[in-house]
Design brief:
6-stranded mixed β-sheet; alpha/beta; 24 strands
Length: 506
């Protein structure tokens, strides 16, 4: 594993279009500060230096945004699906035309490598492209009535004002995955940007402005210290009819409790603890590469990344050695530097949790094959990509989401054993396994208690695929043709008096 030694040389990124860097919130088509004048600082996780500040908004500011969304709703919900499709398509194209700048912003405030950030831009923009195609296709149904003379049919209608609350690990994609289907359905949106990464959200709002999204249809509120107050305002205000949240299970439970006061429609994508299983009949090279992709994407800071890697005993040692060799090829450093594959973690709290999981594993007999320590020579938020073998099910990593670059390798013998271990958790977002046995593929895919399964792949995210979990990983689906349904209600219409005989008179 290479460590970049040029930390001190990292400079502020130069945007091709500096006007994409906004230090304001976006409400009712205008760039605004908090009414209080308060701001919060956003820091670069690679350097610890201040990037800039953003408005520290409060309940009053959020209520203004909610009113703007309400006022815009009456006209926007009457637009045709084809009209909304054209808006989304233009928004998509503007993001892609400015993809390099979006990637720079993501790397700057999130820390991921520039290569990784570019991948996120393409993925995130893809939701606008996908839902531009779904907007004209919110079909109702014709239903055969049981009462003679009645005709029954349904239509789909936008649920109303929607709140979108996203997280920092995918500053663009986590927001577009919510906003795109909401607008495609005819809803208006108040989005709460992540406090750690608000500048990407602001750039997204600038693209909405340029795309001609009507004022009030898409609003972005900002805050760090006041995030709980903002969340409570969005979940308790009766004007807001829908809340979509991505984040921790604990926060999701709180938002769900708050939302019960007005019985909002909800979709939550919460914590994960993904198992990654390699059977002894797997293509070993493909399995190693898949595990690398799944575990270390974004330095392990993804909700669907492999958290527990189970290797069948017959290939355990060989897999462990090959896997560790792959990790040695990583280059850790500031995301902008040439050849860097993995950047810093988001903040010191993330570092502390990763260190606690590593220390616990070592104390209980885990053997570190590579990594296992902080990299202070790079900065306070760097942790070496780590592989630990001889893991046991009573270690912290087995039951807690690490959200960092630590791969724990567990040994198993039978299908029944690994299925039980995989399902021994309160959450169920994603699961992965590698095998060449088609019958085994069906057995394990059906046995895993998760919302998404990757078979012989470590990468499952796709705008065309339904994304979401079961158990305490949440409910509802994002992406795919199912994603737009989260922002629609079904209205049944019965037309009576239709059973008359045909008339003979002219």
């Amino acid at each position: 594993m290479a460590v970049s030694r040029h930390y001190a040389s990292t400079s502020t990124p130069q945007l091709n279009d500096p006007s994409l860097f906004k230090s304001l919130a976006y409400v009712n088509g205008e760039w605004v500060s908090a009414k209080s004048g308060k701001t919060f600082e956003v820091t670069d996780p690679a350097t610890g230096k201040v990037i800039g500040d953003m408005p520290e908004m409060d309940k009053g500011d959020v209520e203004i945004a909610i009113k703007a969304a309400k006022d815009a709703l009456s006209a926007f919900r009457k637009t045709t699906g084809r009209e909304r499709s054209r808006m989304l398509r233009k928004w998509f194209q503007l993001i892609m035309d400015n993809a390099d700048d979006f990637a720079k912003l993501i790397t700057w405030e999130n820390g991921k490598s520039l290569t990784d950030a570019k991948g996120e831009v393409s993925y995130g923009a893809g939701f606008f492209e996908w839902f531009a195609e779904e907007a004209p296709r919110t079909y109702g149904e014709t239903i055969p009535a049981t009462i003679p003379g009645n005709r029954v049919f349904t239509i789909k209608e936008p649920v109303g004002v929607a709140a979108a609350v996203s997280v920092w690990n995918f500053p663009l994609a986590m927001l577009t995955r919510k906003v795109a289907p909401a607008l495609a359905a005819g809803c208006t949106v108040v989005a709460k940007s992540p406090g750690e990464t608000p500048f990407t959200s602001a750039a997204l709002a600038e693209m909405a402005h340029r795309a001609g999204i009507p004022k009030g249809v898409f609003n972005v509120v900002t805050g760090m210290k006041n995030s709980p107050e903002i969340g409570e305002t969005l979940t308790t205000n009766p004007i807001v009819k829908k809340v979509s949240f991505t984040g921790s299970t604990g926060v999701g439970k709180l938002l769900m409790k708050q939302s019960s006061s007005t019985l909002k429609k909800l979709s939550f994508e919460l914590g994960g603890n993904a198992p990654f299983i390699v059977f002894d009949d797997a293509d070993l090279e493909a399995a190693v590469n898949g595990a690398i992709t799944s575990k270390f994407r974004g330095s392990g800071q993804t909700c669907v990344c492999a958290n527990r890697i189970y290797i069948q005993s017959g290939i355990y040692d060989e897999f462990a050695n090959l896997f560790a060799e792959k990790v040695k090829s990583f280059k850790v450093g500031p995301g902008y530097e040439e050849g860097v594959t993995h950047g810093p973690l988001i903040h010191d709290r993330a570092i502390s949790k990763v260190q606690a999981h590593v220390d616990d594993a070592i104390a209980q007999g885990g053997k570190v094959l590579i990594g296992g320590q902080k990299l202070p020579e790079l900065g306070s938020n760097y942790f070496a990509p780590t592989v630990i073998r001889d893991m046991r099910n009573d270690m912290k990593l087995a039951h807690e989401e690490t959200f960092g670059p630590v791969a724990g390798l567990f040994k198993f013998d039978t299908e029944a054993e690994v299925a039980a271990l995989s399902n021994d958790t309160d959450v169920g977002l994603a699961g992965y396994f590698f095998s060449k046995d088609i019958q085994r593929c069906y057995r394990i895919a059906e046995a895993l208690e998760v919302g998404m399964v990757g078979i012989n792949t470590g990468l499952i995210s796709d705008p065309a695929a339904p994304f979401g979990g079961v158990k305490e990983s949440g409910f509802g689906r994002e992406g795919s043709k199912l994603g737009i349904d989260e922002y629609l209600t079904t209205k049944m219409i019965t037309l009576g008096g239709m059973g008359q005989e045909l008339q003979n008179s002219g």
